[in-house]
Every structure is written in C-alpha cells, then in structure tokens.
Write a structure and sequence with these properties.
Blueprint: E1 3-8, E2 18-19, E3 22-23, H1 24-42, E4 47-50, H2 60-70, E5 74-81, E6 89-93, H3 99-116, E7 123-128, H4 132-135, E8 141-148, H5 152-158, H6 161-179, E9 190-197, E10 200-208, E11 211-213, H7 216-222, E12 226-230, E13 235-239
Parallel strand pairs: 1-4, 1-5, 5-8, 6-7
Antiparallel strand pairs: 2-3, 6-8, 9-10, 10-11, 12-13
Bound molecules: zinc ion (ZN).
The site of zinc ion (ZN) has 5 residues, from loops.
GO biological process, one term: peptidoglycan catabolic process
Protein name: N-acetylmuramoyl-L-alanine amidase
Domain MurNAc-LAA: 64-176
Length: 242
Amino acid sequence: MPIVWIDPGHGGRDSGATGNGLLEKDVVLALSVAIKRKLEAEYDGVQVLMSRDRDVFLELSERTNAANRSGADILVSIHCNAGGGNGGFESFRYTSVSSTTVNLHDALHAEIMKALAPFNVIDRGVKSQNLHMLRESRMPAVLTENLFIDVASDANKLKNPDVINALVNGHVNGIARHLGLTRKGGTPQMDKANVIAYGKEIQNGLIINNTVYVPLRALAEASGDRVAWDNQTKTATVTKPQ
Ligand SMILES: [Zn+2]
C-alpha cells in the first residue's frame, strides 16, 4: 500500500509568512488535513502520514527523519509564499532528482494549475531549489508554494473556500495520478496508449493504473512469435516458431 507523507510547513512559534490577517502555519495545516482526508476517503489502498496534525513546532530535521523512518513512498511539503510581487503558485523539487521525482512534480503542478483555472492564479512555474525538505527526504519529494500570504489579491483567494478546495483537489489529483491510485468503488484510471512494437503499431493499447496493456496476439505476432489459446483453461501460450 503506498504511503504518502504530507508535511505542513512551520507550526507553533514559527508562524511562517504572515499578512492580510493570515498565518501560513494555519493555512497549510488546513490544506494538509483536507488533502489527507480526501485522499484516504476517495482512493483505495493509500495511507497518508503527516509531520504534524496540530499547531506544534518541529525542526526540519525532525520532519525528514520521521518521513525517512516511515518508509513513505512520496513526500509533499505544503507552504504558502511571501515576498510581494504579483503572487501566484509555484512548486519545487531538489536540484538533482530521479525521473520518478520529475513525474511526481509534473503531475502535482499540472493538476494544481488545472484545479486553479477558474481563479485566475498566476503560474510561476516548475522550479528546482536546494531546500532541506527536498534534499534530505529519501523518497521523491516536492514542495508546493500555495499563493502569497502578503499579496492582497492572493490572500483574498486563500480566504475563499472554493480556492482552498481547488488547492486540495489539485494536490489529491496529482498524487493519485502519480501513484496510479484507484478510486473507491469506481473504475480504474484508464487511458489510451500508443504502442510501437518491432516497428509495427499495435492497436487498442490501454494504460490502466499506470501499466500498459496491449492485445497479446498482436504484440507476439509483431515479433514473429506464435500464440495458442486454450479456451477451457483460459491460457495463452506464446512460442517461437520452429
Ligand atoms: Zn513556508
């Protein structure tokens, strides 16, 4: 069962960014708790662990030590931004990462921007930076900066429950997409796959929960193999031609 580690930034005596009547530590805790609830409520076989589920101070090393000990498969650190300007959403990975981390980062960023589409949020882009949470986490890790606390137009959005919902949905959809999670009681995630085997196009390829499925006979015969089908035992046998 995949384990997702959600790290709400700051907490306790560390408020994070403040402004426009908002404390970053409160906004990110609310987002994180809602992400955990929705992921576990709507998807099969996923467990969400958190660095904190209340207003408590934690050192960065306490967060990554706990996440590394937990055996979590991915880590998402949730923050809000500050520094003025025009505001917007941006996300980070470490400066040198695996392709799995790039996949997680791209899925999260794309799904969050898609969910934010109705709210006119500036896309500041997919970025890499040498940050403790990204460098010291042993699993693929991404940090999201969910709008600017100190930019009035962004702060107003963070006070809008529809924008909070969109941020939650974007994180949930990105994590589910990356891990290939199955919706509870629903059909598996399915998409069309283009498959070229031995220079031939194989029709009717499908991606089901992150795995590519193709009609066996078409694939085997493309390489010159033979397929025998026993309908009684539902067994396909692939052999090299003699
Ligand atoms: Zn922060």
